[in-house]
User: Fold this.
Amino acid sequence: MTSRPIRLALSMCAAALATTGCGSSPHGTASPTPAHPARLTAPSAPTEPSDTPPTPPGPSVHQAPLTASDGIKVLASGTAVKGDATYPIPGGIKAGRTLAIAINCAGPGRLTVQVRSAGISFSLRCTKDEVLPSMNEIQVPRTHSTGSLHFTADPDVTWSFTIGWNPNPPERR
Assistant:
């Protein structure tokens, strides 16, 4: 029969051996005890599914900034564009409507946007190593049978865009 103190001592020795491990060095001597013993952690509890949608990824020049699911009637879009470009506005410019122009740009330099026929333009300063999102909504004062969006970009600027009519524009202040 083994006494209780001996069983307790043997259990502690077995636990110590289990956590430090046994081994030998290439020279046949026992391995030294590590300076920082490994910590045992319990596995994490499974997480319950969440009713909240996952956080969408940040803005990208490789994706169009808006989609029809944003409530905008998309007219045209482009991704990963470099340099200057012109895109027609299908159906032209409509008086009293709100034209939404969403842009993501990256790279050192400037991107200038002109809504031709409407005489509206604006510029964006883009930066290296960061995608900057921009959203402009323009209430169009006059109808024009044709219209286009013209972009002028510095050589190191990459951009994406979406244009469309916003049926629910923000209220004017």
